[in-house]
Amino acid sequence: MEEVLKINRPFYERYSQLDEREEFWNLLLTPLRQSIRINTLKAPLDYIKARLEERYELEPIPWVKEGFFINTQEFGNMMEYSLGLVFPQEASSMIPPVVLDPKPGELVLDMAAAPGAKTTQLAQLMKNDGCIIANDMKKWRVNVLIANLNRFGVLNTRVTVKDGVYFKRFENTFDKVLLDAPCSSVGMIRKSFKFLNDWSMRKVIMYSNIQKKLILAAYKALKPGGILVYSTCTVDPFENEEIVDYLLRKTDAKLERIDLPLKSTPPVLEFGGKKYSEEVKKCLRLHPQDNNTEAFFVAKIRKP
Amino acid sequence: MNKKVKKRLIEQYGYAPDLVFEVKPNRRVYAYKPCSFNPRAYTEKGIYFGKIESDGIRLTIEGAFLVGPKAKKNIIEVSKEEAKLWLAGMDLKINKELNGWIILKWGEYYLGCGKAKGGTIKNYVPKERRINLK
């Protein structure tokens, strides 16, 4: 805690109102366990898993059957990495595609897709069939996305470079939309203290405003009966519950419960002088200590 | 061009996957599946599948994974040790009378394409895909 205070006092003051538990602060600063996702687009899951188990210890990630914790961070000598058979991906970041559950043949929008871990996971769930529009607004980030799609053998994706708001013109078009929104990245502190140094309330408010525009555009682009998954890797209610509450107030969106085998922290109904709809209880709020992962927030939204 | 690529693949490997192929001016071949949605914006599409060389199509690792499982010719199985050496960027010695572009595989892992000539398979694994041998 002292360490956080020293680096960024406003950060500590804000989030100690959110979670006072000591393990929240301990886990927030503890390096992450390495995890991977096996690429079933190129070879069968059991076959790759068996080959990996000859050299590494794998522990299944309970909420995604292709995901495993692995006892190495050395990918430079791993054949499976070279061949695009595994994707190093944080365990909690595998949740949004699982919740979205895209099917082969569907039309899916991945609104803020770079660097592409979740896009490749969507393609895998769709068995490379149907169509994904993978968008990101920054050209340099898109280059990383394209490299990852290539390495993973993704054939059903078109990449666009647009502000996500652009897609609101395609009203009632997509079967599924994933909005893994740009955010203040508190969850990423476990990867790099840069995110703790860089955090400021001004940025939280800036991201919150961007997220509101994006979620409205994402919802507009969704077909009636379709599913929108909104996710962030941050803990701030202004970027999570507030965004979902805003969508519920502005549209006819309905929230659905997320049923996965993991522990979670109850969503926030009141914070920083703001109150949110009881409906946001259906969202999934993950703090680092819940499952020893990055912090994450996921909402599953249906368009009636 | 699409038909030409498929014809060449069938000639070379005995199989062509049912994909759309696009040949860029640098002779690189990109492969993708059709998508009826038009985002009314510039799109990047397809994976780098291979390159048209003067004597055939050289498949990338991704191309080898798409063609390899159903290839009927010009494909050889290597040992685990040879697979490691290959992915580290080494040429391989072979005792077969092979010539031209060959897909290499180890079990269900497809290792890309090499050029067989005079008892050696020349390595084409790009530097950024090579493994460190420890």
TrEMBL record, chain A:
- Lineage of the organism: Archaea, Methanobacteriati, Methanobacteriota, Thermococci, Thermococcales
This chain's source organism reads Thermococcus argininiproducens
UniProt keyword terms in alphabetical order: Cytoplasm, Methyltransferase, RNA-binding, S-adenosyl-L-methionine, Transferase
- The UniProt record gives the binding positions of S-adenosyl-L-methionine as 136, 163, 180
| Protein name in the entry | NOL1/NOP2/sun family putative RNA methylase
Task: List the molecular function annotations (GO) for this entry.
Answer: RNA binding; RNA methyltransferase activity; S-adenosylmethionine-dependent methyltransferase activity
Q: Would you kindly state one Gene Ontology biological process term found in this protein's UniProt entry?
A: RNA methylation
**Which residues are the active-site ones?**
233 (nucleophile)
Record-linked Pfam families = Methyltr_RsmB-F (PF01189), Methyltr_RsmF_N (PF17125)
SAM-dependent MTase RsmB/NOP-type domain segment(s): 24-304
User: Could you tell me which InterPro entries the record lists for this protein?
Assistant: Methyltr_RsmF_N (IPR031341), MeTrfase_RsmB-F_NOP2_cat (IPR049560), MeTrfase_RsmB-F_NOP2_dom (IPR001678), Nop2p (IPR011023), RCMT (IPR023267), SAM-dependent_MTases_sf (IPR029063), tRNA_Cytosine-C(5)-MTase (IPR053630)
| Matching PANTHER family | 28S RRNA (CYTOSINE(4447)-C(5))-METHYLTRANSFERASE-RELATED, NOP2 YEAST -RELATED NOL1/NOP2/FMU SUN DOMAIN-CONTAINING
| Family, as annotated | Belongs to the class I-like SAM-binding methyltransferase superfamily. RsmB/NOP family.
UniProtKB/TrEMBL annotation, chain B:
Task: Tell me which InterPro entries the record gives.
Answer: Nol1_Nop2_Fmu_2
Among Pfam families, the record links this protein to: Methyltranf_PUA
Domain rRNA small subunit methyltransferase F RNA-binding PUA-like, which positions?
A: 83-131
Supply the name of the protein. rRNA small subunit methyltransferase F RNA-binding PUA-like domain-containing protein
What is the organism lineage in this UniProt record? Archaea, Methanobacteriati, Methanobacteriota, Thermococci, Thermococcales
